[in-house]
Amino acid sequence: MQVATMGFDRFNVLSDDDAQARIRAARAKLGSRAVLLCHHYQRADVYQHADLTGDSLKLARLASQAEAEYIVFCGVHFMAEVADMMSQPHQIAILPDLAAGCSMADMANLAKVSRCWRELTEVLGNPDDLITPVTYINSAADLKAFCGEHGGIVCTSTNAPTIMDWAFAQRDKVLFFPDQHLGRWTGFKQGIPLEQMVVWDPDQEYGGLTAEQIRNARVLLWKGHCSVHQMFQESHIRRWRMQHPDGLVISHPESNLDVCRNSDYVGSTEYIINTIKAGAPGTHWLVGTELNLVNRLAEEVKPEGKVVQFMAPNVCMCSTMQRIDPQHLAWTLENLVEGKVVNRITVPEHEARLARVALERMLAVS
Ligand code: 13P
Ligand code: SF4
């Protein structure tokens, strides 16, 4: 018989302190049966409970190695889907708030990518022979399955250059979705001329491109972006460098090409953290990535005399990840203590099988 779960209403009204105390109590009762995986953008009041933290690549690996019965994922929806697909069948992946999606991932869907593939077939013949589809891990499971089915692969911000090399070793062209900026920066670093990287606008026929543009392109970049990283501009870097000529700039590759080109370092969230932590005492940093990460890092390296500043003048947080708050975490964990599972993330097996092909290709290559 299905046991009714405790509703969220009773938890929504908890004060932060009460929610924190209930998280601690539930975790003590669950012990090793639950593991909390946390992305670096998670808010501080949730991040402090993490067993393990990481960028998307590290978290995918950690999920595949986890032994706990419950993988409680404090991140966004696509990350919990990866945890479900990479873990063992008896393990359960949970996202404390189902509204924690990724606006960039939502910019591509299977209907639009399938239409793109049909239109490419009309122009080029069978794209399976000519184009490697590469999906950023920030995408729904059915798009990873599409890549698995069509000889493609998944990439993350850490391994995108290696994956791009792999993709070109298979075929002459790459269709990169959903983040045009990560695709462009990666192609640019591999020496692909900008004019050979064209933007595919999924809301227009043939992506808004002529047949000639499609034939001449080496990389077709999906017209998608991250709402947080689009805030960072090259002008922010220029102004800051005038005041801090010896300062160092580090950005996430979801930022636009001008920001990446004018940064001293570009890399994933884990790379950003490790690079600044390894930096010399007394160094001054400007960082182009999400605010929760930047604030936490600034506090951590302050004792070494390092100064870490956020790139944009306005506040830009990942508002969807922010939805996972102590109240939702307390609700999720207390239900688990009672033997009830809320917000389980399950990818249907026919999709997961093909998505795993693309994910495992990625893990093998990187
Ligand atoms: P990382 O893989 O670098 O953690 O990036 C994930 C992400 O969504 C950044 O916006
Ligand atoms: Fe998605 Fe941007 Fe949030 Fe990363 S920061 S999870 S890309 S919306």
Explain briefly what this protein structure is.
With 366 residues, the protein is of the alpha/beta class. Helix content is 45%, strand content 15%. The protein has three domains: 2-101 and 320-348, NadA-like (Rossmann fold), CATH 3.40.50.10800; 105-227, 3-Layer(aba) Sandwich (Rossmann fold); 229-310, NadA-like (Rossmann fold), CATH 3.40.50.
Structural class: alpha/beta
* Topology, number of strands: 13
Shape: globular
Spell out the CATH superfamily of the largest domain: NadA-like
CATH class label of the largest domain: Alpha Beta
Biggest sheet: strands, sense, closure? Answer: 5 strands, parallel
* Number of discrete helical segments: 17
What gap, in angstroms, lies between the N and C termini? 45 Å
The CATH topology annotation of the largest domain reads as Rossmann fold
Low-confidence stretches: none
The string of secondary-structure elements, in order, is: HHEHEHEHEHHEHEHEHEHEHEHEHEHEHH
